[in-house]
TrEMBL record:
Bilayer-spanning residue ranges: none
GO molecular function: glycosyltransferase activity
Protein name: Glycosyltransferase involved in cell wall bisynthesis
Organism: Tessaracoccus oleiagri
Keyword check for Transcription regulation: no
PANTHER family in the record: GLYCOSYLTRANSFERASE WBBK-RELATED (PTHR46401)
All copies of domain Glycosyl transferase family, residue ranges: 200-325
Domain of life: Bacteria
Keywords: Transferase
Lineage: Bacteria, Bacillati, Actinomycetota, Actinomycetes, Propionibacteriales
GO biological process, one term: lipopolysaccharide biosynthetic process
Length: 361
């Protein structure tokens, strides 16, 4: 049987974000596939892309904005519409707003990331930004383009719902796995050994929307519990100036030290929206459950009672109540690890290959 030819498209390769990690996984799934994009900066993108055949649609259009691609959405769209159709049996488009616009003579499989601006509903903050208005005015899925996309795959259940509500598009759900750092062997963190037999863990930038302040206040109400927050950010000094004795802030840990934290934590705490929901899977590889806000990609990676539990509001009271409820719960580390393995990169790649095989029949 002849294997179908596959090409990959991604919006732009000018950063090292989660969507670009997913594009790399797609490249590992189809190692012979060329990668089409609008702009490629080898120094800014993940170095693994240097080993791939990357083709840019903007080589013939040097005046297009390259520092902030959002500013040139309309021009990029026209460039992709005028570019020659990609020769492949299946085009795998990894899209945050542009990649699904690449034309192909074959069939198209569109993977939609949760960070795609066109998924924002009209009452959200993005609507007030120039980029947000542009994304909605451009109508990312007009009917003539939708007809050329043979299948949509949503990165989360939230994305699936948004595609249906905003554009009437049906999609399967295939969560992206966490980066390989989740499997790094643990390395002891000397300054934390006195707490190694029990603490809750939060891994977060110290910024307002991550609700670190709410978590600290929750543990102020729980003097018999401990919280370690791993991360740094602009609010670090403010938090350090008023920490209760059962809360510590730690920064600068490498992957091995972070793995040690996951391994020794009683539970991971995620009190803010996580678009991809990766943090609970990183904890799950260590057999550690997660207490999470019921939002975003977390609803796909946390299974109530299996690898964690939810709370419904990012308030100190709701967080403290979730910690109390979890105290006497019997978590099974083996089942938690098995849940993480069910969303591994190998499973992700197998699912992508199955979608491509079905489309190419």
């Amino acid at each position: 049987m002849v294997r179908p030819s596959v090409a990959i498209a991604h919006d732009y390769l000018t950063q090292r974000g989660t969507a670009e990690r997913v594009a790399l996984m797609m490249a590992r799934a189809f190692p012979e596939a060329p990668i089409h994009t609008t702009v490629y900066d080898p120094d800014a993108a993940f170095p693994e892309f240097r080993e791939r055949r990357v083709l840019t649609a903007t080589d013939a259009a040097p005046l297009l904005p390259r520092d902030d691609q959002r500013l040139g959405l309309g021009m990029y769209r026209r460039t992709l519409e005028q570019a020659p159709a990609i020769e492949a049996d299946v085009l795998l488009a990894s899209t945050m707003g542009l990649a699904h616009r690449f034309r192909t003579r074959g069939r198209q499989l569109v993977y939609v990331h949760p960070t795609a601006g066109f998924l924002r509903s009209a009452d959200e903050a993005l609507r007030r930004t120039a980029a947000g208005r542009a994304l909605r005015v451009l109508n990312p899925f007009p009917r003539r383009e939708r007809a050329g996309s043979d299948r949509f795959v949503a990165s989360t259940s939230v994305v699936k719902t948004r595609l249906a509500e905003l554009y009437g598009i049906a999609a399967d759900v295939l969560p992206a796995p966490p980066p390989g750092a989740a499997l790094t062997p643990p390395v002891e963190v000397p300054g934390m050994l006195d707490w190694q037999h029990g603490f809750h863990l939060m891994v977060s930038r110290l910024v307002a929307h991550r609700n670190v302040d709410k978590a600290i206040e929750a543990f102020r109400q729980l003097p018999d519990e401990r919280l370690i927050v791993v991360g740094d950010g602009p609010l670090g000094d403010d938090f350090r100036g008023d920490l209760p004795p059962n809360v510590r802030l730690v920064a600068g840990l490498d992957d091995g030290e972070l793995a040690w934290c996951y391994t020794h934590a009683t539970a991971l705490l995620v009190p803010s929206r996580d678009e991809y929901g990766h943090a609970p899977l990183e904890a799950a590889y260590a057999g550690t459950p997660t207490l999470a806000l019921r939002a975003g990609g977390l609803v796909d990676t946390v299974r109530e009672g299996l690898n964690g539990a939810f709370f419904d509001a990012p308030t100190p009271e709701a967080i403290a109540a979730a910690v109390r409820r979890s105290r006497d719960r019997g978590w099974d580390p083996g089942s938690i690890r098995a849940h993480a393995e069910s969303m591994s990169e190998d499973r992700f790649i197998a699912a992508l290959r199955a979608h491509v095989a079905e489309l190419s029949r």
